[in-house]
Amino acid sequence: MANTYTYTGPGTRWAVGNPTAEDLLNISRINADHLHEALNTIMSTSTANGALSLPADVTIANGFGLTIGGTSQLNIGSVTPELQVLGTGSPDSTAMLAMFNSTAGGPLLSFLKSRSATIGGSGIVGSGDAVVQLAGYADDGTDYASAVGMIAISIDGTPGANDTPGKFQVSLTPDGTQATTEVLRINNAGNAMLGAGAPTSPVGLSRFLEIEGADAGLVLHDSGGNAWEMYNSSNVLYWAYNGGTKMQMSAAGCLGLNEALPEGSLSININQAAYDDIIFALKSSDISHGMTDHAEADTYFSIKKDNVATGGVALQAFSEGNAGLVLHARPGAIPTTDTGSSLGACTIKAQQWDGGTDVIAAPATSNALAVTDGTTTRFIVKGNGAIHATNVTSGSGDLDGTALDGEDDIGLIRAFERTVHSDLGIIMSKWDGQVEAHADDLRRVGVVQGDFYCLQRMDSLLGGGVWQNHCRIQDLREVLDSTRKELTETQAQLQRLMA
Amino acid sequence: MAIIADIDLDGGIPLSGAYIRYMDGYVKVFEGDEGTKEWRLIYDVAVYKNQAARAAGDAALSVRAVDHFKCLYDLDTTTNVPTLAYTDLKARPAISNPVDA
């Protein structure tokens, strides 16, 4: 005879005794609770009503699923996931993998993709096959089919035995849509594309980050909220600070600093806007020149506007030593011709605005080249090639001779006389007297022009003076010859009278 | 270590109690055309409005006349480079009333 037990239903289970499975199945009227308890007793030592603890592998046949927390499986669109954890709160909608041991290993959620149509079979995957896909869907108020984003790992390239390259992709749903778009990919070489598609490097970089988009770039924010942005827009590379473009480089290679449209085919343009200070500087920490009213101590060359309002360029060379600006002109061959179109190793072209859009040669009377000591102009080459040297402001008609070269005998003699005779030399005083006496005439014939004298006109004057001297010497010779002849005749007459 | 001194900012604006700090430097030999060799100490300093500004992390001021210097260097010296730099700096005409800080 079977044992007698009292069953009080779920919650308290058997009020009396602890029946075996055989006892349970020997009950005359079997209901679902009896079967449940019988199965529970067979497979486990479970004590809580409804809880199962299985001491062996559990399998669910292909085509069937497991739902935890729900009474039936839900669909995402037309897809019915076979493993579902459904809940109404965080804990009962949360999955966990945990490992408890003393090793460094951790829980693993692994995915496997095979092209075999048989579970447990073998079929090599193909390029692009998805191996891992983690997708997020949201209830849009109508269904559960709206995607928010997806993370996928796929085969990246042609696979083979022991050769399964992978790529990592992140896709997100843009505003206004329910389908995802790829926004990030890392290929099997570890290179990343922020955008859609495979990262590519035209120059073959071995490791890089590619950013693709209509205005693809980087934003570098400091903690104060200020941002530098570097981006490519229509194949122009921009550097912008807080939204204002500071520098850009065109696809042709033109670099513009504060210049939107650099001129030139391959050039650097710097637009200093309303600033007037140095626009370009070369520095060396080896140098400390001390002329800091003009440039920083380690600046040895700078370029700036010569006139803040009208332009022109001021080249400034700074040095602690004797050499300031040194021009090294090293052509393949220096011209030797003396023609109106001859060039030199160093050539300065002086031209002026033609009043339209072009320039013309420096006018004859214009100053094509001037040399100053920073305060006073000392040397001028006129547009017609005339060389004007030495200012004469020290006194009316006083040619101080500071620009005369070593071949000018008059200048040398004057300097000699001034030194030897304390500025009272005969030649000097005679010369200066003549200059002063004939200052207006000298100015009229172009020897003296403004505060300068013209070397060419001076040469002409001196040459004319030499010729005049020659003519007068010839005249004197004739007078002397005539006098000598008269003396000879007179002497002959005297001898005749004395005889 | 630093010095506090009176200086003129760019444009001639006087600044009293400027906090001037050695930043970096190096020693280099310069060879002259005649084969002469001179060892020089080249160093940079940073200028702050005052010591408090430096402590507060304020940016250094741009002062051309108090920025970058070069002085003779004795290879046999046992004095460290920052100390040499401060000694040279305090003798500079652009620095007035310098005191160690």
Note the topology.
The complex is a heterodimer of chains A (499) and B (101).
Chain A: E1 6-7, E2 14-16, H1 21-25, H2 32-43, E3 66-68, E4 83-85, E5 130-138, E6 146-155, E7 166-172, E8 181-186, E9 192-194, E10 209-211, E11 215-221, E12 227-233, E13 236-241, E14 244-249, E15 255-257, E16 268-270, E17 280-283, E18 299-307, E19 311-317, E20 351-353, E21 359-361, E22 367-372, E23 377-382, E24 387-389, H3 409-420, H4 426-437, H5 439-444, E25 448-449, E26 452-454, H6 455-498
Chain B: E1 3-8, E2 14-31, E3 37-48, H1 51-55, E4 68-72, H2 81-90, E5 96-100
Antiparallel strand pairs in B: 1-2, 1-5, 2-3, 3-4
Task: Explain the overall architecture.
The complex is a heterodimer of chains A (499) and B (101). Chain A has 499 residues and is α+β, with helices and mostly antiparallel strands. Chain A is built from six helices and 26 strands. Chain A has helices at 21-25, 32-43, 409-420, 426-437, 439-444, 455-498; strands at 6-7, 14-16, 66-68, 83-85, 130-138, 146-155, 166-172, 181-186, 192-194, 209-211, 215-221, 227-233, 236-241, 244-249, 255-257, 268-270, 280-283, 299-307, 311-317, 351-353, 359-361, 367-372, 377-382, 387-389, 448-449, 452-454. In chain A, strand 14 and strand 15 form a beta hairpin. Chain B has two helices and five strands. Chain B has helices at residues 51-55, 81-90; strands at residues 3-8, 14-31, 37-48, 68-72, 96-100. Chain B has a five-stranded antiparallel β-sheet.
Summarize the structure.
With 499 residues, chain A is an alpha+beta fold.
Proportion in helices of chain A: 10-25%
Helical residues, percent of chain B: 10-25%
Main β-sheet description of chain B: 5 strands, antiparallel
Shape of chain B: elongated
| Estimated radius of gyration of chain B | 15 Å
Q: Which band does the percent of strand residues of chain B land in? A: over 45%
Residue-averaged pLDDT of chain B, rounded? 93
Q: Which chains have the largest interface?
A: A-B, 11 and 12 residues
Reported for the largest beta sheet of chain A, the result is: 6 strands, mixed
User: Runs of chain B with pLDDT <50, length 5+?
Assistant: none
Compute the separation of the termini of chain A in Å: 210 Å
- Structural class estimated from helices and strands of chain A: alpha+beta
Q: Gyration radius of chain A, to the nearest Å?
A: 53 Å
Number of strands of chain A: 26
**Count of domain modules of chain B:** 1
Identify the overall geometry of chain A: rod-shaped
The oligomeric state of the chains shown is: heterodimer
Unreliable stretches of chain A, pLDDT < 50, 5 or more residues?
393-408
Q: Count of helical segments of chain B?
A: 2
